[in-house]
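Why do we care about 3D structure at all? Because function follows from shape, and shape follows, mostly, from sequence. That is the central idea of this module. The next example makes it concrete: a single protein chain, its amino acid sequence, and then its structure expressed as tokens.
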Amino acid sequence: HFCTLVSHLSRVSVSSGAQKQTITESSVLDISSCPITYYGQKYEQLYVNFTGQKIVFCFDHFYNPENKGDCIVGSSPNTRTADFDIIQADSFLDQWIRKKIQTIQNSLRCSVQITTQVRRSMITLALFNFGTEAALTLEAYTIGPVIYTGQVSKVVIDKVQVNNILESYQTDDILDISGCRHSGTVYKPGTVVNSNPQICSSVTCSETATLQTSGCGPLEHCQGNDICMLDTTCTVTGPIIDVHGQINSIRDRCAYSLFSTPSLPDFQVQGHFDDRRRKDVSFLDSVTLRVDRHDIHLEQGGRVQLNDSTLTLNSSSQLVHGVQLSKDQTGVTAKLSLSNLNISVFFDGDTAQIRLEGPAGSSVEGLCGNSSRSLSDLRLSKYSSTSCEMQYSEPADSTINCTSVTERCNLLKKAPFSSCNSDIDPEPYITACTDTLCKYPAVDGLNCQFLKAYARACSLHNHTLDGWTSKTGCSSEAFCQDRTCSDHEFCGEKTVGGDTRCFCRAIFASKYQANNSLGDPTVCKQNSASLTLVGCLLEDKGIDYSTLHLKDPTCRGQVDELTHMVTFSFNSSNRCGTVVTANNSYIIYQNTIRSQNYSSDVIIRNDQVQINFSCVHSQPNINTATFRIRDWSVAQHITSGAWNYTLTIKAYTDARRTKLVKWNTELQLNQKIWMELKTDGLDGNMVALVSNSCWATNKASPTSTPRHDLMLNGCANRADRTVQVQENGQGTSTYFSFNMFRFTVGSADIFLHCQLHLCPKQGNNCIPTCSKAARRYRSASFTYEPEAPAFISVSWTY
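And the structure:
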């Protein structure tokens, strides 16, 4: 009999003690030690309050007639008091309840009991915890009706009613309050619901009240007919918001794999990151689509390049290697459809958004896909510079107000953006926005970049955010559209909201700023020199390159249209006012870059510029060569420091130097021979070749004896009347003649040695000054013998 059973249970039940209390007013009871799963919803608190005619036990809030929620409602007790206790479980009670309710599968863990008096009856409400399942019992010792109603979100679940029980009898009832909840609907245990195939979902509430759902995944949507399709978007600015809504940040300036999928092994989206105004913050700089080994580059300013060719695009799609390319005022869009997958890549010069649509189960790899992979795994070293991984630190920008920045970024949770919040979570965009703008100034369109990215992500899911541009002061058009900057530059604002120009990237500029320089070191060559200035550094100083020139005002800088570098140069054909000086060891070329209104003592001040540059060349080392007259000629290529030229030595039998001495030419003693020492590669307008001295020996060594001098101090030796110097110090060649002879002692060979130097023409008379004193006869150490073979060795110094 139940009354006996209840009495027995009362005797064996053990209270937890700490939870037992008397309730005299509206209270919130802590039942976390015995939580109750009420029709699929687990609760750890119980709200008890007394109304005019009722006592109400609610799980989610105090009772409100307008919104009853999850509540059990009963008649108001006589004294507005109730006793509350948590009871530990025992096996006998567990068996009894599961015998009464055979749908309960789990074991009893504990119970919550509340006892109160209603008129002349004592009522005990017990809530039993069976893990994911739960049961309710009601025990009454009175006569009269008592109604308890369980409601979930205004839906009546069941009703317990005790009527006309004699006072001498005890009666009871017990109720299974297990269930599952899904999307606002309650399901009984053991229920399987196949929903409308147009939404691709089914719900199963197991026998133990465990909810199981099947349907489209978090990145998918239902196409109908129980078909799920993948539809996901990745947004890349500097931070990356991947397809799962997770954020990753790039701190270096390398190339990374942004997007790929195993379904398309020959397709990959790459992103190259670079710095702008700060060395420690990187942004997406360009996007590359690799399609079947072809590279399509989406770059700043809306420029699109296929390999090394620039494409001309407009709003009409152009098919390039299977990719539909188009361009409008908002940016460039690339679309690709392969293997039931639709991929679109949008890039406006600052932000890339990659969307994938395809069959369920398609996976995304790269920074847009699996955020758990390390950056080193996704870094593309082949497409990155060797120093790209180096990271920098800079002091915080004290002008940034992070509070106002946060308010700006939080606009994404307000109208009109809020209409999209249910489909596109704004939190990743807000985090990316605040993380960036709290350390980087809100210039160059960055104040709108994240708002624009979120608005476009919403548009991809058919959300039109009317008026968002006017409410935020932003434009939907791409920033810096059609302005092309070089690799070491980025497009930015001259003033906030003003005109744009190309600025030097911070890391690139730092190497010049450290030396207070505007360009690279002078490039010195043998016959020319050049100095290259950095265009964006000149603009930073307010210098107009078109007003600059060398000492000769007609010599102006040449601008490289790709790099925007400005180069000033001079050479042998146009010296541009270059001054050439020399000392014993060096030859110096000097010129100056000036502005049109320069003053002589000014380096840089406002629009006045004077930049001196020079090239200093060391005199070449001494070199030696051997010349055999019958071998026609000898030529030797000489490289010494910046000098790079060829010296050719020839012998002739006529004054016009048309009859070259050949191997079969018969030479007689006292026959006149004309010698030519000619250089190729020297700048004859700037330097002259001067033969200081020439002498003959019958051995290869220049210091051997006997010795006979043919030229001394650049002039013919007065002791040998046959020597004549036709040209010396006038150009880049030396010509002289002498009559053949032989030494009377030693070898019959004759070696000729000459010592030469280079003489700067500007400001110098390079032609030796020779005396007209009477010449003497040859010394007795040599004579003329026609049968002797002749060899000439030439050595020269500068």
